[in-house]
Write a structure and sequence with these properties.
mainly alpha; globular; single chain; 164 residues
Length: 164
């Protein structure tokens, strides 16, 4: 077991899953940025997810927490599962935002943060023995950190193209 408190460890893995696509975009630019939805339009004529959701981002979003879990004493599959559910949550919010005719990377407070933290917390609760209070604290901490860090990263021209 890791020396990091379980709730902090889960928050760290979720954070890694959400930061990894931003690092990948910074490192690779437009290379390997194939749109996950293949530029297919939904029945409403809008993109399924939008051009900002890429295969590269999903791969990095799953790989980062997977690679972090193992050296911290947890199976890589747990990190991968946390990454996959965080990415699934991000796709859900993007899908909903496209249905609401919002542009890719536009802000929808709550919708942007909620699914990508709640889904991984739900699967991680049993693995890491998180109480409901622990799980709620991870969700609140993620919301706060995501909002504050995205503004800081934008201000210093690091990773963010838009402030959230």
């Amino acid at each position: 077991m890791t020396a990091i408190a379980p709730a902090c460890f889960v928050l760290l893995l979720i954070g890694a899953a959400n930061a990894a696509p931003l690092f990948a975009k910074k490192w690779f630019g437009s290379r390997l940025a194939w749109p996950l939805d293949g530029d297919v339009k939904w029945f409403d004529g809008e993109p399924v997810f939008g051009h900002s959701k890429t295969v590269r981002g999903i791969v990095f979003g799953i790989a980062a927490p997977s690679l972090m879990a193992w050296p911290l004493g947890h199976p890589m599959w747990q990190g991968a599962a946390i990454g996959a559910t965080a990415m699934a949550g991000d796709l859900i919010s993007s899908f909903c935002k496209r249905r609401m005719k919002m542009t890719p990377s536009s802000q929808a407070f709550g919708l942007d943060q909620g699914p990508e933290v709640v889904l991984p917390v739900l699967i991680a609760r049993g693995w890491f023995g998180l109480s409901l209070l622990d799980a709620a604290l991870v969700v609140v901490a993620f919301f706060c950190l995501e909002v504050v860090l995205s503004k800081v990263l934008f201000h210093f021209h690091l990773l963010r193209d838009r402030p959230y």
